[in-house]
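Quick one:
INPUT:
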């Protein structure tokens, strides 16, 4: 039930941002609440990821299929884990040679109503911190 949609213009190419967002295996290095990430079953347009998310005393694994349209879009297909559902995408729109608009969307609901009620109040702040972590990572590597 928590939903967040955000558009931002960043001073990077779509290819740079696509590579950063699609590099799920490195999320634990910079993304809050991602304790581990393993990717496998790689194809040109998709791969599977096992991700361990943690918040305070809670840790939960989830599995997703990451669908790739290079330099344009990344869609997350939820497979298994603590969610009733998870919808997530990143759309990259070039504005100039070095400016890209990111359209980020996430919507999910936990299977556990207690966990849902505990985390819903911090959801907005968590997403803001996550977006900031991607921006900071882009600045560091580009």
């Amino acid at each position: 039930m928590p939903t967040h949609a955000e558009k931002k213009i960043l001073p990077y190419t779509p290819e740079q941002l696509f590579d950063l967002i699609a590099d799920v295996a490195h999320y634990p290095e910079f993304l809050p609440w991602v304790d581990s990430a393993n990717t496998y079953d790689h194809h040109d347009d998709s791969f599977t990821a096992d991700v361990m998310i943690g918040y305070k005393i809670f840790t939960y694994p989830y599995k997703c299929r990451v669908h790739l349209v290079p330099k344009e879009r990344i869609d997350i297909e939820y497979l298994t884990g603590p969610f009733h559902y998870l919808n997530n995408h990143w759309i990259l729109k070039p504005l100039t040679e070095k400016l890209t608009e990111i359209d980020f969307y996430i919507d999910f609901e936990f299977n556990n109503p207690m966990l849902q009620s505990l985390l819903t109040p911090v959801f907005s702040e968590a997403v803001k911190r996550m977006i900031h972590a991607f921006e900071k990572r882009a600045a560091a590597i580009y």
